[in-house]
Amino acid sequence: MVVIIDPQVAGISGDMVLSALINIGAKKSKVIDGINVAANYLSGSKIQKIDFEKIVKHGTEATQLLLDIKENTHERKGIEIQECITLTSDKIGLSEKAKVFARESIKSLINAESKIHGESIESVHFHEASSVDTVVDIIGTAIALDDLNFFVEEIISTPVAVGGGTLNFSHGTVSNPASAILEIFRNTNIIISGGQVKDELTTPTGASLLVNLTKNCFEFYPSMKVKSIGYGAGKKNFEGFANVLKIVRGEKTEHFQQDSVQILETNIDDVSGEVFGNMIDKIMSIGAKDITVSPAITKKGRPTQIVSVICDSEVINNILETLVSETGTLGVRIRTSSRYVVPRVIVTVPVVIHEKNFVVKCKIVKSGEVVKHFKVESSDIKLIADSLSLSFKDVSDLVRSQVKQKIGAK
To answer: What is the pLDDT of residues 115-158, one digit of tens each?
Structure first.
């Protein structure tokens, strides 16, 4: 099964996520009971009323969180909120995955504020996020996800609308999206877009929940059979669209795994083969998935080489710097690309070659319990060949024969 979080029109906030999960089937009473426990661990705050109601937003019926709180503080240390969430998670018996999700979500908020203000984690103060409603959003979402058993599902996001214009908050006027949201999304695969209004569509809490739920963001839904849909309403009203977060659960119909990668591409026409060889080794060593150098013809009939690197967003900056420093290129094109990959598992298999013991890594593709095909890691074969002074081809044949027998491949 797959779960799609769809914030591409109205963005995402903590209360919208929680409300959408209630709408799609999470037990309201279970969520409310857990939230009331959390309030006991946060001094100076009292939940006077909490409920969820059905509301129509610009023609769409959705669930909205009703929260009436009384507080006598306007700021708290981030670690106070973190301690409340940790204590509550243990007290109400969340699953381990739900506990990790709740802890990491508040950490994302704290780390973002720490980075922006140049303060230590222990010193970070929340202003807008200091209210008990931050705890409500994080703990309530963790409970709801646990109740729906969503932590075992594949979770995917569509691009996130963040809005535009300016925002006024405790530190003055800033452009939207605020620095906290940009910091939370930095170095993730989540794609952001402006959206349709000059207003805040995505909140830091909503961003933190999202990045801790999924690493996958795609512009289009995967092939799937829709099973259930949840609509979570935000507090604001906008002309032209419903301020609603959509969550869709369905059964995927393709037999491939979908993810997204970054593609870096540049044209090089004035370096030697030795430079290319060194560049390839360096880029692969810092985490690239693959690199291709292809001949081409550009303007005025000039020959060139197109360097194309596939990588994850986490290593994109290092690879970019290496491309520039090693080749002297003056520009690199970068784009995000969805890809489908065949599901595989990686196993280690012991082999005996010329009466010596070795272990090789092997990628296996299965159909049910049947091994359809496999591939032994070439670097392991090379190590064995070098250590025994044998040819790569001979060792490959010997290793594949033993691996095939041991994993039951046909």
So the answer is: 887 777 776 766 555 568 899 999 999 999 999 999 999 999 99
Q: What is the pLDDT of residue 123?
A: 65
65 token code pair: 């969180």
> Alpha carbon of 253 to those of 1, 223, 225, 247: distances in Å?
9, 6, 7, 18
Average confidence (pLDDT) over 284-298: 94
DSSP percent split of the chain into helix, strand, coil, nearest 5: 40, 35, 30
Angle between helix axes 96-117 and 204-211 (nearest 10 degrees) is 130
Q: What is the pTM of this model?
A: 0.71
For residue 375, pLDDT over 60 is answered with yes
Q: Which of 176, 222, 166 is nearest to 338 (CA)?
A: 222
Q: What is the DSSP letter of 77?
A: E
Q: What is the pLDDT of residue 314?
A: 83
Four-point Cα dihedral 81, 84, 87, 92, nearest 10? -120
Average the pLDDT over each of 162-171, 233-242, 306-315 and give the range with the smallest value. Answer: 162-171
Give the pair of three-digit tokens for residue 229: 């849909």
Contacts of 286 (CB under 8 A, 6+ apart): 315, 318, 319, 322
Domains 259-341 and 345-407 share a fold: no
The band of 279, judged by pLDDT with boundaries at 50, 70 and 90, is: very high
Regarding the domain with residue range 259-341, which homologous superfamily does it belong to in the CATH classification? Transcriptional regulatory protein pf0864 domain like (3.30.70.1380)
Structural fold of domain 345-407: Ubiquitin-like (UB roll) (3.10.20)
Which amino acid is present at 287? G
Type of residue at 130:
S
How many residues are there in the chain? Answer: 410
Q: What is the Cα–Cα distance from 314 to 379, expressed in whole angstroms?
A: 24
Tokens coding 4? 């799609």
| DSSP letter (8 states) at residue 200 | B
Tokens for 110, please give them: 């704290």
